[in-house]
Amino acid sequence: MAHPPAPVLEVLPRDLSAYRSGNVGVDYVHRFESGRPGPHVLVNALTHGNEFCGMVAATHLLDTGMRPKVGTLTVSFANVAAYESFDAGRPFESRQLVHNLNRIWSSEWLDGGEDSPELRRARELRPRADRRARGGLPRATDRLRRAGPGLRPAEHDDRSMAHLRTPSSKEPERVNTLNRILAVLAAAVAVAVQAPYAAQAATPQKDTLPSGVVVEHLKEGNGAAPKATDTVSVHYRGTLENGSEFDSSYKRGQPASFPLNRVVPCWTEGMQKVKAGGKARLTCPAATAYGARGVPGVIPPNATLTFEVEVLSIQ
Q: Label partner for 112 (CA 20 to 30 A): which of 27, 61, 240, 286?
């Protein structure tokens, strides 16, 4: 039987041999550790050999040197054998060689006696796969679908792509479908690789000063930072090491104003790191606060103090 005319291909395969030598003992698997706690994000391409959009996204991550700031990023290419069998005249036949790689991740398949290129690859990847993926190798579109409303692509099976198999007068529909697939994959990769950066952003930036004062930036300001000779208007809350509060402008219902060179050294030094509109947490060693004297009845001697401070204005 004659094959129908092949569709117009807008995304074409490329040579992946440069990515073969991974760094975990498995071909085409690349793992990058930040050395800091955080999520482990797996970006997997080519669960099916003719899914080129994921290949484009994964090679882009590797080509641009994307590295996590926290946690771990793994980039992998799954069914490379099927991918390398691609024939532009019969593009849908490179989806798989024997088995659908997305449907053989149960123990019955992986521990069974059958053999195929896909089963060998699945068994090779199995120790490296996140345990949450054991029910099936996760695809970016699947993760987006579970995440909630928004772009919801059709399932990537032969039925959902049937309308792409032959040229059609519905060219705008075909182009729009491809664009939706590209957009969803791009969004999924963006979500995946930004997860570590979101975790990083949730960790306050710290400045540790020579005196031992620590400034944790809870909210970045958008104005200038004060000088020691400036007068600042602030809201603040002060606590002892046991967490008990000893002073609060919030409770008094009005901000405090004072020249920075007329307060304890911790404030003089630390507040020069906080811009107008910003909020910070100051950790003040006793020597930069009230020292061995303390404040009778309020602050014990040699107490380390913590202040959360919002800079409202600078004069």
A: 27
Last residue of a domain, one of 187, 202, 217: 202
| Cα–Cα distance, 105 to 297 (Å, whole number) | 66
Please report, rounded to a whole number, the percentage of residues in the chain having pLDDT higher than 90: 48
Q: Does one domain contain both 130 and 115?
A: yes
d(CA 12, CA 2): 24
pLDDT tens-digit series, residues 233-263: 999 999 999 999 999 999 999 999 999 999 9
Sequence-distant (≥ 6) Cβ neighbours of residue 297 within 8 angstroms: none
- The helix/strand/coil state of 314 is strand
- Please say whether the beta carbons of 200 and 255 come within 8 A: no
155, burial (CB in 10 Å: exposed 0-12, middle 13-18, buried 19+): exposed
User: pTM of the predicted model, to two decimals?
Assistant: 0.46
- Work out how many domains the chain is built from and give that number: 2
**Buried b / exposed e across 162-200, counting CB within 10 Å, b at 16+?**
eebeeeeeeeeebeebbeebeebbeebbeebbebbeebb
pLDDT in tens, 80-133: 999 999 888 888 888 899 999 888 888 889 899 999 999 999 999 888 764 434
Q: Are residues 191 and 210 in the same domain?
A: no
Predicted pLDDT of residue 4:
62
